[in-house]
Amino acid sequence: MTPIMPKHDAAAHVDSARIRQGRTWAELADHLGAPLVWTTAALLGQHPMTAEQARSVCDLLGLDEAVAESLALQPSRGTPPEVMADPTIYRFTEALSVYGPALKALIHEEFGDGIMSAINFTVDFARRPDPDGDRVVITLDGKFLDYRW
């Protein structure tokens, strides 16, 4: 029996097919009728897709059932250390290192003792024109979960 393709291999097939066909992540999200950031994360292996979603995107990209099977698996979430060192990704770590304590204090002041969920969660991404250089706008939208004793 052939082993199931690892999710990082499936992600490489998806990304290669997307690039070679000149498709954008937004086109793939529109094709699936799913949010842009979620779709991109799922196709890069961080979320499971339904079997129907996986087959649909693989049909669009001309990828086989082995890729679709992998895309539908439950992932082991996280990012390898070498990817975390990428300057773009590292800046997110840097931003949370600087602003994380302030955001935590503000969440506690506004909501009380608890956390922002990263499970009941959405992320939005946009480009905002600015005369000093376009701005990257990222909105993290998580449900507040209070600590209950």
TrEMBL record:
A GO MF term: DNA binding
Enzyme Commission number, as recorded: 4.2.1.104
Keyword Lyase belongs to the record: yes
Record's keyword annotation contains Lyase: yes
Record key words, sorted: Lyase
CDD domains: Cyanase_C (cd00559)
Ranges of residues in domain Cyanate lyase C-terminal: 78-149
Catalytic activity: cyanate + hydrogencarbonate + 3 H(+) = NH4(+) + 2 CO2
Highest taxon of the lineage: Bacteria
Active site: R91, E94, S117
Family recorded in the similarity comment: Belongs to the cyanase family.
Biological function: Catalyzes the reaction of cyanate with bicarbonate to produce ammonia and carbon dioxide.
Protein name: Cyanate hydratase
Source organism (scientific name): Dietzia psychralcaliphila
The encoding gene: cynS
